[in-house]
Amino acid sequence: MIPVEIIGFGLGFDDLAPKHIRIIKGADILIGGKRHLAAFQDHPSEKKEITGKIDKLADFIRKNITHKKIVVMASGDPLFFGIGATLITALGPDNIKIHPNISSIAAAFSRIKEPWDDVRVISLHGNRLLSPLFKALEENSRVAVFTDANKTPSWLASKLVEKGIQNFHMCVLENLGTDDESISWHTLGQAAVKSFSSLNVVILKKYPSESRADATSFLKDFYLGAEDDLFEHEAGLITKSEIRAVTLSKLRLWPGLVFWDLGAGSGSIAIEASLLLGDGKIIAVEQKQERIKLIEQNKKHFNVNNLFIVKAVMPDGLNDLPLPDRIFIGGGGKELGLIIERAAARLKKNGVIVVNTVLFNSLETARMTLGKLDFKIEVAQIQVSKSKPMPHDARFIALNPVWIITGYK
To answer: Does one domain contain both 139 and 192?
Structure first.
């Protein structure tokens, strides 16, 4: 028999050593994942893509191993939760040669610049149970996880939330070693509603304190324009950090005022307003129950005691609220004009109302409605671009431009 050569591909073609490439070029049959085979699409050998049916792959190799040189290209290190162990069991160790390379876990920790000699690694591939992961999280402050097409990072985060695990946050490293490489940190609630590339590694890291409610200590302090990742929010539906800071400045807040946050969403504006309102009263109005839960979580997380959450459909739900000194409207949709009229009618003299929108029609509705009500109007357009790390540099990503319409009564 001709031994099967199993090559660890590392993160990509650039990680292959000259020895690896020489072995691959000598193959009669090349076996690998779609991206591995794509790197050698001009190779004259027979090619076979690895799918989830490993038993059939082993049978295919047995039929050809006596007369053809077979090379299997595997991700990372073939013996680190890889196909190497499976093929050794199926074909026998004497019929296998292993050529290791950098594993995706090693690469992941190199990206976040942390040692990983004490990290527990768990694989969720196939039919593996979650109980080993739960045990690992009880015993370790950092756990790395291999996900798969079904057990995605968002699926994993949802399961951890259901289990009541709150003292970990999640790093998702996507497309490592490619031009689309991305590294992002999330609370478990945030990760549960996001979508991620199928090519990913997950790192679960315990917050420095044991309680999720104390997790703000991770960034030392609670402050204006705090990072979006500190808030639980639904699929990115949050007033972004820089926009939040400008919006709060336009509201002209000071201690003792009554503040309405209408269409509060995650409550990020209301939460940060608490830093400026002192013993004032904050009322967050939201109609969707799932978002109300997010506001409640953020209220608890940031320990905001003067925030009151009202479930109501606007504008009718505004009638029984205490008269406001300041109003922020971050939602409203087709009813925006009517919501502004009802809210403005209850706004105290010399009060301020601020409307944020990314939509043309909402901009015109807000401007014309406030003008009709004899408010002094100011409109600002804010365009933010944020840096995103690349493998060897950084680039800017533009966020949606936002109009901030301020009305003075």
So the answer is: yes
